[in-house]
């Protein structure tokens, strides 16, 4: 477990800090240390001599900001302070007195503020406890309108530390220096527009204190490369054969959505799976063969609408011949009997896209209760609402935990910050992605990729949520790399499949 993987709520952070202070670390010494690290970072980014405005709140977030103000003052920056509060915490107040005595300009009124090149936001950190109201709310809106770079200490002031919700209004930071451990709110979708580039400032919190508060295995974690390296079946055993490296069955596609089947197949190809079989309607079989010559394409009888009407597997094969099944992309809802059939099988199963829409109509919870083996659901927001209309969506982490616990499945909720939960509430959040992936077909690629990884490792005592997390990370990293080379407009789903292998090569 690395610090980069850990996520905390404000209550947990307070408990961890409390242990450090109880063990003897002076509060003021920790504030010096944290603010020193922030000042060092700022100095690397911003040339000396520039003018910096420091926004100071009443608590220790404001205290951190005041120490930064003092440091930057001595390091040759032109500093001014905006501090509109009548009452400050004691340590914060001492730093404020000292800054004034040093001759740093301090202001309480907005209209007196001089121009500046950048702002440091130390109004509120994880101690924000209620909606921000005027005059502070107006001040925050005013600073946002300046369109200067804003560096937020710990988190942009105004964001709820756990849910990322905007409490009244919030600073729109260009950079966030998260202190010590990642706050949960910074991984919530609704916070993304406010955070800018986020970096963790490690101030040496002892691991023992983290474990004492979060347990030996923390429940909510960020996916990192470490998770992925531990999960992927690399290196391959020197002596193996194709059926030992997993046999994945994809059930996907229709006359209407033939491309979805190709993309799912290409995603699976990149996983390195030993054998790939793809069941599609008979009429699109030649198309699939031409795109995926290595796969076994199973042409199935079809409905009048061009959907699979019956799974016609090759001789001496039934569903139990496969190590894993991924079902859904491009099926259309006319393939309902097929989805029922795979749900009734014992094989580890991923349900995506139309398979999820069909599941919602069959009754999500009652239908999945019958399943004994691994089930993975990969809804986007719309599919999630159809599957779980009664789950409150305000906090996506809680929503995905509830969905997993109600169904016994591992649930991956897609989005800018994909969240994954197992039925026991163990959560992975994907910390990085790109809006370049918000394009038709990129989810199909994910389903194929995940299916291929699952088929290779499912019999090897892995945690299923780690498999799902690995696929999500790999998929989004490929998107990020592709966007870097081709812009955010250049990442169509086919192109995305071409970048998947590059991520492994660079690891
Ligand atoms: N002790 C230290 O030196 C350390 C300080 N840290 C900093 O301390 C912060 C937490 O400090 P605090 O617990 O003092 O909390 P904050 O500084 O986040 O804010 C709490 C203060 O704001 C007031 N407040 C809360 N909501 C308000 C609202 N809506 N309108 C007006 N006032 C409001 C509270 O009454 C309290 O005075 C962290 O975010 C971080 O920046 C730690 O991260 C690192 C160690
Ligand atoms: N704004 C975004 N930022 C990052 N990733 C995104 C964003 N929007 C969508 N994605 C990712 O793109 C994929 C889209 O999947 P999905 O909605 O199923 O598309 P489709 O069904 O067309 O393939 C998901 O992996 C999702 O997490
Ligand atoms: K802040």
Automatic annotation (TrEMBL):
<dbReference type="GO" id="GO:0046496">
    <property type="term" value="P:nicotinamide nucleotide metabolic process"/>
</dbReference>
<dbReference type="InterPro" id="IPR000631">
    <property type="entry name" value="CARKD"/>
</dbReference>
<feature type="domain" description="YjeF C-terminal">
    <location>
        <begin position="225"/>
        <end position="507"/>
    </location>
</feature>
<dbReference type="InterPro" id="IPR030677">
    <property type="entry name" value="Nnr"/>
</dbReference>
<keyword id="KW-0521">NADP</keyword>
<feature type="binding site">
    <location>
        <position position="61"/>
    </location>
    <ligand>
        <name>K(+)</name>
    </ligand>
</feature>
<dbReference type="GO" id="GO:0052856">
    <property type="term" value="F:NAD(P)HX epimerase activity"/>
</dbReference>
<feature type="binding site">
    <location>
        <begin position="414"/>
        <end position="418"/>
    </location>
    <ligand>
        <name>AMP</name>
    </ligand>
</feature>
<dbReference type="InterPro" id="IPR004443">
    <property type="entry name" value="YjeF_N_dom"/>
</dbReference>
<keyword id="KW-0520">NAD</keyword>
<feature type="binding site">
    <location>
        <position position="154"/>
    </location>
    <ligand>
        <name>(6S)-NADPHX</name>
    </ligand>
</feature>
<dbReference type="InterPro" id="IPR036652">
    <property type="entry name" value="YjeF_N_dom_sf"/>
</dbReference>
<protein>
    <recommendedName>
        <fullName>Bifunctional NAD(P)H-hydrate repair enzyme</fullName>
        <ecNumber>4.2.1.136</ecNumber>
        <ecNumber>5.1.99.6</ecNumber>
    </recommendedName>
</protein>
<feature type="domain" description="YjeF N-terminal">
    <location>
        <begin position="13"/>
        <end position="211"/>
    </location>
</feature>
<comment type="subunit">
    <text>Homotetramer.</text>
</comment>
<keyword id="KW-0067">ATP-binding</keyword>
<feature type="binding site">
    <location>
        <position position="157"/>
    </location>
    <ligand>
        <name>K(+)</name>
    </ligand>
</feature>
<comment type="similarity">
    <text>Belongs to the NnrE/AIBP family.</text>
</comment>
<dbReference type="GO" id="GO:0110051">
    <property type="term" value="P:metabolite repair"/>
</dbReference>
<keyword id="KW-0413">Isomerase</keyword>
<dbReference type="Pfam" id="PF01256">
    <property type="entry name" value="Carb_kinase"/>
</dbReference>
<dbReference type="InterPro" id="IPR029056">
    <property type="entry name" value="Ribokinase-like"/>
</dbReference>
<feature type="binding site">
    <location>
        <position position="380"/>
    </location>
    <ligand>
        <name>(6S)-NADPHX</name>
    </ligand>
</feature>
<feature type="binding site">
    <location>
        <position position="443"/>
    </location>
    <ligand>
        <name>AMP</name>
    </ligand>
</feature>
<dbReference type="InterPro" id="IPR017953">
    <property type="entry name" value="Carbohydrate_kinase_pred_CS"/>
</dbReference>
<comment type="similarity">
    <text>In the C-terminal section; belongs to the NnrD/CARKD family.</text>
</comment>
<comment type="function">
    <text>Catalyzes the dehydration of the S-form of NAD(P)HX at the expense of ADP, which is converted to AMP. Together with NAD(P)HX epimerase, which catalyzes the epimerization of the S- and R-forms, the enzyme allows the repair of both epimers of NAD(P)HX, a damaged form of NAD(P)H that is a result of enzymatic or heat-dependent hydration.</text>
</comment>
<dbReference type="GO" id="GO:0046872">
    <property type="term" value="F:metal ion binding"/>
</dbReference>
<feature type="binding site">
    <location>
        <position position="330"/>
    </location>
    <ligand>
        <name>(6S)-NADPHX</name>
    </ligand>
</feature>
<feature type="binding site">
    <location>
        <position position="444"/>
    </location>
    <ligand>
        <name>(6S)-NADPHX</name>
    </ligand>
</feature>
<feature type="binding site">
    <location>
        <begin position="60"/>
        <end position="64"/>
    </location>
    <ligand>
        <name>(6S)-NADPHX</name>
    </ligand>
</feature>
<dbReference type="Pfam" id="PF03853">
    <property type="entry name" value="YjeF_N"/>
</dbReference>
<dbReference type="GO" id="GO:0052855">
    <property type="term" value="F:ADP-dependent NAD(P)H-hydrate dehydratase activity"/>
</dbReference>
<keyword id="KW-0456">Lyase</keyword>
<keyword id="KW-0630">Potassium</keyword>
<keyword id="KW-0479">Metal-binding</keyword>
<feature type="binding site">
    <location>
        <begin position="125"/>
        <end position="131"/>
    </location>
    <ligand>
        <name>(6S)-NADPHX</name>
    </ligand>
</feature>
<keyword id="KW-0511">Multifunctional enzyme</keyword>
<feature type="binding site">
    <location>
        <position position="121"/>
    </location>
    <ligand>
        <name>K(+)</name>
    </ligand>
</feature>
<dbReference type="GO" id="GO:0005524">
    <property type="term" value="F:ATP binding"/>
</dbReference>
<keyword id="KW-0547">Nucleotide-binding</keyword>
<comment type="function">
    <text>Catalyzes the epimerization of the S- and R-forms of NAD(P)HX, a damaged form of NAD(P)H that is a result of enzymatic or heat-dependent hydration. This is a prerequisite for the S-specific NAD(P)H-hydrate dehydratase to allow the repair of both epimers of NAD(P)HX.</text>
</comment>
């Amino acid at each position: 477990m690395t610090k980069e993987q850990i996520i905390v709520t404000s209550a947990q952070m307070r408990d961890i800090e409390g242990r450090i202070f109880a063990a003897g670390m002076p509060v003021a010494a920790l504030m010096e240390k944290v603010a020193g690290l922030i000042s060092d970072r700022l100095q690397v980014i911003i040339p000396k001599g520039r003018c910096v405005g420091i926004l100071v709140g009443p608590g220790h977030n404001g205290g951190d900001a005041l120490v930064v103000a003092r440091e930057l003052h001595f390091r040759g920056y032109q500093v001014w302070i905006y501090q509109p509060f009548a009452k400050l915490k004691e340590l914060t107040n001492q730093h404020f007195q000292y800054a004034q005595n040093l001759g740093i300009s301090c202001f309480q009124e907005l209209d007196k503020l001089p121009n500046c090149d950048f702002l440091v936001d130390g109004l509120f950190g994880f101690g924000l406890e209620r909606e921000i109201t005027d005059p502070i709310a107006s001040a925050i809106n005013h600073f946002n309108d300046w369109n200067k770079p804003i560096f937020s200490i710990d988190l942009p002031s105004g964001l709820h530390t756990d849910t990322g919700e905007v409490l009244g209004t919030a600073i729109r930071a260009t950079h966030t220096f998260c202190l010590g451990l990642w706050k949960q709110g910074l991984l919530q979708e609704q916070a993304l527009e406010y955070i800018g580039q986020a970096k963790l400032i490690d101030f040496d919190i002892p691991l023992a204190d983290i474990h004492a508060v979060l347990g030996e295995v923390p429940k909510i974690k960020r996916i990192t490369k470490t998770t992925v390296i531990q999960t992927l079946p690399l290196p391959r055993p020197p002596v193996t054969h194709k059926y030992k490296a997993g046999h994945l069955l994809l059930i996907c596609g229709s006359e209407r959505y033939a491309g979805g089947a190709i993309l799912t197949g290409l995603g699976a190809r990149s996983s390195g799976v030993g054998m790939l079989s793809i069941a599609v309607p008979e009429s699109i079989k030649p198309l699939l063969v031409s795109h995926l010559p290595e796969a076994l394409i199973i042409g199935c009888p079809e409905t009048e609408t061009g959907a699979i009407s019956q799974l016609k597997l090759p001789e001496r094969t039934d569903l139990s011949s496969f190590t894993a099944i991924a079902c859904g992309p491009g099926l259309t809802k006319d393939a309902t009997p097929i989805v029922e059939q795979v749900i009734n099988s014992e094989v580890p199963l991923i349900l995506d896209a139309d398979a999820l829409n069909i599941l919602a109509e069959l009754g999500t919870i009652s239908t999945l209760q019958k399943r004994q083996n691994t089930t993975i659901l990969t809804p986007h927001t719309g599919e999630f609402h159809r599957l779980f209309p009664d789950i409150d969506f305000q906090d996506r982490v809680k929503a995905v935990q509830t969905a997993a616990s109600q169904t016994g499945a591992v649930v991956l909720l897609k989005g800018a910050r994909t969240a994954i939960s197992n039925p026991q509430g163990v959560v992975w959040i994907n910390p990085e992605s790109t809006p370049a992936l918000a394009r038709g077909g990129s989810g199909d690629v994910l389903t194929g990729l995940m299916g291929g990884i699952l088929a290779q490792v499912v019999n090897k005592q892995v945690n299923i949520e780690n498999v799902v997390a690995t696929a999500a990370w790999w998929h989004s990293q490929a998107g990020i790399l592709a966007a870097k080379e081709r812009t955010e407009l250049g990442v169509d789903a086919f192109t995305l499949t071409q970048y998947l292998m590059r991520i492994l090569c660079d690891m």
